[in-house]
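Narrative of accomplishments. A recurring question from our advisory board has been how the design workflow behaves on a single, concrete structure rather than in aggregate. To address it, we present the structure tokens for one chain from the evaluation set, followed by the sequence designed for it. No filtering or post-editing was applied between the two.
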């Protein structure tokens, strides 16, 4: 075989090999495209019932009168009555903080009624922040004793509720990893059930999205009310027992 013929044979062989490789690559690419179109979207839920570990209780009280000194003196008596009440309930001094007194002169307010029954209104506030949520819940039920002593409890600032207590769960970060794992596991279980019904197998994850963690009243969650921390915030904060939920959305490839 001459040198020229040998070159032609080698070139033909390389060209044929190139066609084979190109055909294999094209077939593989088409297969990948078909597999990319075969996926299922599922959601996985994880839920925990937890107990609040922090209580925040704002207490406000006011007195009104036409003599500023006498009105303020009565407000100071109210303050002492509230502090004595909290001490009697076993609430530590370190959990109590005092607010600044506020004095309103109705005659100096152009928007006040012209014939206000009292010229001066003195309002004070005390805030309780405690990790003993059960003790706070018990104390709240006994505030009628303050009314019997002439202490007028005013409207709290939280959600417009009268001296409302906020029960907060601060341990969310400690349970997040476990809940995300559980939600993802539940999503795969749902995908496997779908794949089994459709004669397929679950492959790798195409995309995954973690939903927001929501905290609602445990009572609302059990009744299907579905209130959460981004919706009816007061309902969630008013309950000691909370329901923590997260939903993950995962897309899995399906294989034949």
């Amino acid at each position: 075989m001459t040198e020229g013929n040998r070159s032609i044979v080698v070139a033909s062989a390389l060209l044929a090999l190139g066609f084979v490789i190109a055909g294999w690559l094209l077939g593989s690419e088409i297969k990948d495209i078909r597999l990319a179109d075969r996926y299922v979207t599922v959601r996985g839920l994880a839920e925990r019932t937890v107990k609040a570990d922090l209580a925040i209780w704002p207490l406000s009280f006011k007195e009104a009168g036409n003599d500023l000194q006498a009105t303020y003196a009565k407000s100071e008596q109210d303050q002492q009555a509230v502090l004595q009440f909290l001490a009697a309930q076993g609430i530590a001094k370190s959990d109590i903080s005092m607010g600044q007194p506020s004095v309103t002169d109705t005659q100096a307010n152009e928007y006040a009624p012209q014939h206000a029954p009292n010229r001066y209104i003195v309002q004070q506030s005390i805030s309780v922040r405690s990790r003993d949520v059960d003790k706070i819940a018990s104390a709240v039920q006994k505030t009628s004793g303050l009314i019997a002593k002439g202490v007028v409890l005013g409207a709290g600032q939280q959600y417009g509720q009268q001296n409302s207590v906020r029960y907060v769960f601060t341990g969310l970060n400690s349970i997040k990893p476990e809940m995300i794992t559980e939600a993802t596991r539940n999503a795969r279980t749902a995908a496997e059930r779908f794949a089994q019904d459709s004669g397929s197998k679950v492959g790798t994850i195409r995309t995954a999205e973690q939903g927001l963690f929501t905290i609602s009243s445990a009572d609302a969650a059990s009744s299907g009310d579905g209130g959460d921390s981004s919706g009816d915030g007061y309902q969630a904060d008013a309950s000691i027992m909370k329901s923590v939920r997260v939903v993950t959305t995962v897309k899995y490839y399906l294989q034949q």
